[in-house]
Amino acid sequence: MAKAPVLTPQNEDYPRWYQDVVAKAELADNGPVRGTMVIRPYAYAMWERMQAEVDGRIKATGARNAYFPLFIPESYLRREAEHVEGFSPELAVVTHGGGKELDEPVVVRPTSETVINSYFAKWVQSYRDLPLLINQWANVVRWELRPRLFLRTSEFLWQEGHTAHATAADAAAYAERILRDVYEDFMVNVLAIPVLTGRKTARERFAGAVNTLTCEAMMGDGKALQLGTSHELGQNFARAFDITFSDEDGGQSHVWQTSWGVSTRMLGGLIMAHGDDAGLRLPPQLAPTQVMVLLVRAEGGAGERAAGLVAELTAAGVRAELDDRVDVSFGRRSVDWELKGVPVRVEIGPRDLARGSVTLVRRDTGEKTGIPAGEVAPRVTAALAQAQAALLDGARRRQEERTADVSSLEEATEAARSGFARLAWSAVGEDGETRLAEQGITVRCLRRPDGSLPVTGDEGDLVAVVGRAY
RNA sequence: CGGGGAGUAGCGCAGCGGAAGCGCACCUGCUUUGGGGGCAGGAGGUCGCGGGUUCAAAUCCCGCCUCCCCGACCA
Description:
This protein is of the alpha+beta class. It has helices at 14-24, 41-60, 74-78, 81-87, 113-123, 168-189, 236-241, 265-274, 302-315, 330-339, 350-355, 376-401, 409-415, 429-437; strands at residues 28-30, 37-39, 64-65, 71-73, 92-97, 100-108, 132-141, 155-165, 196-199, 211-218, 224-234, 244-246, 252-254, 256-263, 291-295, 320-323, 344-348, 357-362, 368-372, 403-405, 420-424, 442-447, 463-467.
């Protein structure tokens, strides 16, 4: 019985498909103020999984969590010229408090470099205080003219790390470590999203940074999404906020700094990297619920058997839940869990009971397999591992297929219609970058031919990866 | 901020001078349950706001507000 599709098909209207998924999978709603969003419980559970995985990796690099205030004196922003210039257009400024006009307006943080560094100046005295490695989980506000749920909202949730080091080399190494060991590792191994790591051009660099490193991913429609950034700030903020320390020889030096972050934008990336016409497809490593045990009908002890399966799977370390709402039609429930991207379903009904088996369904492939009732835990565990690998593999293959090696701006423009183009950075240059930008195409990152990170933007043989971006 | 559209039930829309409707969702009951089931009944509206024209305005006119889409900025 052919029903109207639940979602607008991707190849018909991709942005519409995205909105449909967000609504139908109950991920988010628009907030009452334009550009704000309500993150619904299912998406928030995904965010909590992201937080747990990222937080553990951050702590493994030695950083510790802290919390700094939402409100920042406007004057702080002004201390670093490029920084204030970069953020001014998108600031939310509070002019009144307690029923009175404030002597000095306060801004709602768009990022926390300025407040945090004003305290670093207090806390750092000696080389013995370095490196100082701080992270905070917080909300930030950047007023957006064209918001899109998760991808671009006026308020979003993120993690922002801020560090101070004794040497430029130490800061550079740390910024790279965060990019590799925290972000890239998390995105590839948990989100199953292959990312291109590289260096941003001067044009795309963070306001106030001397170098910005990025993780770029390709979405289902061939467009790029920046999923995370790690910046070397040089001594820009150290000078602006007077963060100095006594070195081993008794001299005074400014610290070298980094800052880095990933946000709820990753939820949008996850949707668009793996989603298909039936909805979300979550990688098992991230999925809040890895296995949904679906009771078809509560007859002949099937209910007890289903509850037993959940207990068995839970004991085996699997995040399993039971759907025994037999008053809701089976088709409805199947469609719902597919929309929500639950990686594996285990169906159990009278037919399975009679055969002494259960039915295992993989979300990523749609494949259904009958498996003996006694082998559920090992077979489910294996299926989860296979689904995780298959999602990464599929996303990697798409990225390779839709990336073209070209040699001119014209060819790059053509290639950017469906994906990325790779070409020599020397064939683009800042003039070429401007010309591409006029057509909505940006240099996503610069890489060395072997994929390693450039130390400077001036290296001779750099490769530019260009494309359209969210 | 420039260009283009739209405001009617929770969501998506029709109606465009003469009793406010349709699909989905929601509630009740029965029946069904292995891929968005079926039948019956029901609830839900200052038709964005304000003014005007008219015997009569969701519909025509004027003003305002809001939202969406396309371009310049952005995690």
